[in-house]
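All the exercises in this workshop are built on plain-text protein records. The record below serves as our worked example for the rest of this section.
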Amino acid sequence: MLQGPEYRNRSTDAIISEDVYFDSVGHTYRALSWLDIAKRNRNVSAFQYATLEVRLAIENLMFEEILMSVGHELDKAEYEKCKGSSTKLKKILRRLSPDYEKLVEFTRIINSVNPNAPPLISWDHGRLMKLWGKVSDFLHWQGTVDETYDSAGWFEDAIKLTEEAALHIWENLHQGYSGVLMPAKMQPEIRDYWEKFRNGKVDAKTVERIAGITLPVLNKRIRKPGNT
């Protein structure tokens, strides 16, 4: 597991001024930092900041998944559709890269027989969007103060749900790296089996067996002078 920065016992000044990155990692880091303050001090404002950061973390993560699936092929028009349409991000990903989940699985199979490959993360997009919806509820009026923020039970449950979402992202992010093999950059032999796997003509076991035979040959080819 990759080592991440400590989010506990940070001051408010540190949260808003230190290591401020506006990506899925940065937003999750701040969310957990705010949640820590909310739990320690029963601070409602810190909890609200945390819910906003979790939501932004999921939105950024889904957009990062889109970028990985299509690379530089994401044009300006598609980029504009992603902005301000968080509930449509999963649909946009499915439309731009309908085989993305299979491509992630294929990449993991190839990596499993490559000792030099980094560990990869697989994201459950359906779960991410469900967590996004649940956390988003806390950014809207939930009822009177005595039923919500002044209610110990309600506040504890809200903290628990928001923390579940933040930790799901944080722990996955520290298990490995997001990434897939881009079909356009695959070696011809690997691309051939990707197409067969994508169309259901070969199964995971076959891909694993062929990769074990093919990768050593491909690695020697790539390492030859003049090859990339």
In short: The CA atoms of residues 28 and 113 lie 32 Å apart. The chain has a mean pLDDT of 88. The first helix runs from residue 12 to 17. The radius of gyration is 21 Å.
